[in-house]
Structures are given as structure tokens and as C-alpha cells.
Amino acid sequence: MSAVPDTFFTVAPHWRWLIICYFFVGGIAGGCYMLALLADVFGDPGDRRLAHTGYYIAFAAIVLSGLLLTVDLGRPLRFWHMLVQSHTGWPMFKPWSPMSVGSWALLLFGAVSFLSFLAALEEAGQLRWRGLSLLRPPGTFGYIVGVVGGLLGFFVAGYTGVLLSATNRPIWADTWLLGLTFLVSAASISAALLVLVSYVTGWFSAGVYALKRFDAWALILELLVLAALVASLGAVARIWLSVWGAVLLAMVIIGIVAPLALHWRVVSAGRLTAPIAAVLVLIGGFLLRVVIVLSSEGVKPV
Amino acid sequence: MTEPMGFFTDTTVCIGCKACEVACKEWNQLPASAGGAPTLSGDSYDNTRRLDGLHWRHVRFVEQFSPDRRDGRWLLMSDVCKHCVQAGCLEVCPTGAIIRTEFDTVVIQSDTCNGCRDCIAACPFGVIGMNPVSGTAQKCTLCYDRLQAGLEPACSKACPTDSIVFGTIAELRQKAQARVGKLHAQGERRAYLYGADDRMLGGLNSFFLLVDKPEVYGLPPSPRLPTRNLMPSSLLSAAGALVLGLMGVINFRMRGANAEAREKELADERRA
Asked: Taking CB atoms and an 8 Å cutoff, what residues of chain B touch A97?
């Protein structure tokens, strides 16, 4: 009996589909911003439009993230209690609570990604206010916005896994690798989404091919991290000797192995090869979050 | 701050009457169920089954019987929030709803909580649950309102066998040690205290006298704080961010290879 890990005596917080969707959409928000910034700073001049797409998606996704999180609360109208002490009016901030830091990161990232969103709209000719171009690299102020947004983007993409680990629930609190797993997955699904948008709209730049290769690298990294994650769980990984293990395996095949096979042209679907690979990566990223959240949610206390 | 207050629960004298559960519900105006008729467990006299947002006291019935049922015993324990000195729920609560009171107890302020449920996942004992009526996370307050009025908590007041004793922590620890000594002298060598010293989460302000392993009572053998994982988890993620950033820079900088990939794809398409 003493072999039962301490995390098995706790109860589930009922973080279900809204939270799973948030983990997915939030990962896309952070990941797309980071990739858009990389395209802006290190890509060709032709990649500016690719970066626009990234900024549009990042802003839309972070707004959706806030909505998902708010609706999931037991008292949604009190969402602001995460940011303001309701009794004193002072800011509410606990640097050691991932949810507290995450709430601030979402707010700030929302603000910064809105600036980048405006700048992208201006460059795309949708808005006519020339000052907006200052909000995006190149240019000192643009770099400042970009670096702040990029750092916040990385944070938003990865802190959710750290938040799960800073609990006492099975799997979540039994490993240190969930933050890293979610971060790497966020990078791979974001690259896949940007590649997909590019193929759907039929618009290409050199950066799209950079993203395809980046995605393949990220998928390999994700596979390594997942293997390390399973190993780090030790005996707790037995939870996955269930339907969840099957879903995880399906995730690895659908979301990592198959897209890599398509990327390396081991198998080919003609001109649909890249878009199919991208869709599979997105499905895999969603399944990964489903397994991690629901397999722990399902563990009843001893 | 007044002296730290808490409960000492001596499970050896609990008779499973559930007066504590009833007194708790009465005083705190908690409904019997979350709507609809209460359900029965069907395999035990324990129909409460566990602590949650509507059940802040739970008398756990541990039924230990031999397969032929000739021999057996009931272990009864009135379970409650442990009011940990180092409380995981208080640590993670992002709204500041969870506070430490002047009595060194841990209380969720229902008017501040927004129902994010982080505390539920963080509690090492699985004590906290959602109250569907308030839409907030709730648990035992150690009758904070009664304490402020100089009264003892409803459950310990109602306990007919003094299995639940309320008092200052210093006084309770002395009583508990004396009780363990007495039980040992009487031959019950299995008796020991769970959470009565500072080693377990800085001390549990609600601690227990048990006669079997903690896990038999549904208690974790070595409960820990949720933030134990914070630093290593964050550092590994930061390292990952660095690697991903570098991967991004390298891939966008491989301009020749990117142009080549585009050419190859166009050639493939033409062939197809």
C-alpha cells in the first residue's frame, strides 16, 4: 500500500474541455507570436506577410484564451479578482503562483500582441495611421515591443504546463517536464498552423519553408521530450496503461510520426502533403493536451 | 495574533455518530446535497464518502474484515481540513481569497474566490471542493465566525466522545502525546500522531491520532507543497524556450535551403 504516490490522495479540480481548449489556443497564441517575431527579425523582407498572419492569429487566440478561462470560472464575473485585490483595490500578484503570474502574462501579452496586430494591419493597408509601423521591427521601439511580446509569448505557451506541475495531482505534479512539453508542442502546432494558412491562401515566402523545417525539428524535439516525460513519471506512468495510453500513442503516430513521414516525403499526398502534415500536427497537439489533462482528472482519490 | 488554534482528532474514541458532520452543516448552513435526493454509497454506512465543498467534515468508515468476516474492525475518523501551517491551497490561490487568520487557521473568503479551482488541485489532502450554490471553492473554516465570537467550532462542541478536541496547538499537542503514551501503556502500540509536529507541512493545525498507516485512512504518507516543482519546471521550460528560439533563428537564416525547398516543391508539383 505504501507504494501509492502521495498525489493519489488528492481530488481533481474539474479542469475539462474549456481548459484543454485554452491550453491549445493559448499555445497557438504564444507560439504564433514568437514565430512571427522570428520571421520579422530573422526572415526575408518577403516574410513580412507571414509575420502578419502570425500576429493576427496570436491576438485572436489570446482574446479567445481569456474568454475560455473566464467562462470556466465558477464565478466568471469575478475574473478581475486575479488581477486586483477585491478588498483593497491593490494589484493582486503572487510570483510563486503560476496562475497569478499567468493571469498577468495573459493581460500583458494581450496588450502587446494587440500593438503588433495593429502594426500588421497598418502594413497590410487595412489601417491608415502611419505611426503604427513604429510598433514593429525594424526600429528601436518596434524591437522593444517585439522582445517583450516574444518573451511573454514564450511564457504564455509554456506556463500552463508549469501550472499543472505546481499542484498535487497525479501525473501533473509527478514530473518537471510538462512546461517544456507544452512549450515544444506550442511551437510545433503554431508552425503547423502558419504553414497551413499559407497553403490554404496559396501565398508563399521563403519563411514558410523555414517554418516547415522548424516544425520537423520541433516534432523531433517533442518526441524526445515525451519519452523523457514518460520516463520521469516512473510508476505513475501506469495510469497510461489505459485508454489514455492508447490516445497518447495515437497522438504520437498521428501528430508526430505521420507528419515527419510526410515532411521527409517517406509518404506523399502530392500538393496536399504539407497541409495534411500541418493538420495532423494540430490534431496531435490537441490530443496531447486531452491526454495530459483528462488522464489525471480521471484519477479518483484513494 | 492570538495563539494558534486547531483540532486534535483522536480516532480511537470516534464512534461514527456523525454528530460533527451534522453540526457543521447546521452551523455553516450547508445543503445536504447539490440538488436532488442524497445518494447512498450502497457498500458502507459512510454515505458522505468524502470531503468537498458541501461536506466540511466527513466521518470516514474504514472497514477491515477478514475474507470470512470472522474477524474485523472498524476504524473511524472524522476528517477535516488540516489547516496546514504551510498550506498548498493558500500558496497557489491567485485571487488572495485564501487567507491565514489570526488563529493560524486557513480560510477561503467566499466573496473573493472566483472558482478557478487551483486550490482544489493543490491541496495535498483532497479537502477542498466546489460549492455549487456559491460557485466558489469551499472547505472547513474552523468556524472562523465562532472563533471570533469566543466560541468553539460546531463540530468539536457536538462531538459526544471528545474524539474531536479544540484548543491551542500547544495544549493539544501535549494532550495528544499523553494520549499516545496512555494507549501504548495499555498495549495499543500502533497508536501514533499524524501531523502533530513541524515536519509535516510545518505542522498540521488539525492533526490526528491513528492506529494504522495513513493511507488506510485516505491520508498521504508524506504530503508536500505544490510549489516544490515550480523552480525545476520553470528552468526546464526556459531552457526549452532558448532551444526553440535558436531553432527558429537557424531555420529562418537558412535562406538558401528555404529557396531550394520552394524550388523542389514547385518542381514536384509540376511533375505531379
From this structure: 91-94, 118
